[in-house]
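[SOLVED] Need 3D model of a two-part complex

Original post:
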Amino acid sequence: MFTPEQLWSIAKPWHGHRLERGWRRFTLEEAEGVFESAGLTGPFWRL
Amino acid sequence: MTDDDVRLHILRELIAGGSAPSAGDTAAALGVPESDAAAAYDRLAASRVIVLQPGTRDVLMAAPLSAVPTPHVVRMADGRSHYGNCVWDALGVIALLGQDGDVETVCADCEEPLTLTIRGGALEPTDAVVHFAVPAARWWEDIVFT
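Solution:
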């Protein structure tokens, strides 16, 4: 379980730039970095 | 026409409040042959940028937006409403559009209505908690369930 604040903090980098031309999906490493920066760590968050 | 043109057209149409454009609609809007737009839809789906209804080229998801109604309603400050694929995506719609907005959803545990409110780029205090049932590495095994 985690907090809505953590969910908001990953929603911004995950989705906030999709209207920009040239947007691309995160690499696995980048995605794990987004989770980690929100304090979401451990095997559950590994890609 | 690039795949990015097609991706942006789908997103912009959903944000404008219409239904998701078909490959034919997108081809007409971008002035390209329908076969080119259809191939772009297939590539975008294969690379998990969009999700199509099974066995069709109908857009189901263009994250963070859902092309079909879901329990995760986003109400923006400009009066428009959208559907997110999940609560994460619903918050993502607010992040994408860069305005104040509310996510109206239902608690998956107690089934009570739940609202998450974003004002000035910040989440207003809430005592809600978030639970993901599926580990990150398995999200795409069944993205509709996830």
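Edit: The interface with chain A takes residues 4, 7-8, 11-12, 47-49, 63-64, 87-89, 91-96, 98, 116, 118, 123, 126, 128-132, 135-137 of chain B (CB under 8 Å).
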